[in-house]
Design brief:
Structural class: alpha+beta
Number of strands: 4
Helix content: 40-55%
Strand content: 5-15%
Oligomer: single chain
Distance between the termini: 12 Å
Largest sheet: 4 strands, antiparallel
């Protein structure tokens, strides 16, 4: 029952301070206690060899670059990664290192699940997060390869958590 409760937390705006930076997701999730729980999720970095191979595939495909700059995560990219033996997305909870300051020792707890739900929504609108999670600054790589990036591609989208005010702890029941 932790996953549906995590989705409810994400939908209610209980996640705040959400950030993704080179393999690390940080957030606060407001539960039933006055102080929000601290969330840290770490994704494994790609090896240097895999990073080089993947970036070479991307920079050699103008159509793929155009779709990425248009904020579309093309399934062709995932196929290219798969052919190279690279997992861009985690395939199980064990692929991520996750911690939460709540007293529930289950992984994922509902607070971690809320952050994961929010992350999946953000990736839908900003595919560059997939690369950031794996330790790659794709926009910087494209610029270094001489590929011009539109300012809109470089402008971070506002996070869902930033669009919704945090819900005060009093809004949650004691079993939250």
């Amino acid at each position: 029952n932790r996953l549906p409760r995590g989705r409810a937390y994400a939908n209610k705006g209980a996640v705040s301070g959400f950030s993704v930076e080179m393999g690390t997701i940080k957030a606060q999730v407001q539960g039933s206690r006055p102080k929000p729980y601290q969330i840290v999720i770490q994704a494994p970095q790609l090896s240097k060899t895999h990073t080089t191979q993947l970036l070479k595939e991307i920079t050699q495909d103008p159509a793929l670059i155009a779709r990425l700059l248009n904020r579309e995560l093309d399934p062709a990219l995932l196929e290219k990664a798969k052919m190279l033996g690279i997992k861009l997305f985690p395939t199980s909870w064990q692929d991520l290192r996750m911690t939460c300051s709540c007293p529930d020792h289950a992984v994922p707890c509902k607070h971690l699940a809320a952050a994961i739900y929010l992350l999946s929504r953000e990736i839908d609108s900003n595919p560059f997060l997939v690369f950031s999670l794996r330790g790659i600054d794709l926009l910087q790589t494209l610029r270094a390869s001489g590929i011009l990036t539109d300012q809109r591609a470089e402008t971070p989208l506002r996070c869902i958590a930033d669009r919704w005010p945090a819900v005060p702890a009093a809004a949650f029941t004691a079993d939250s």
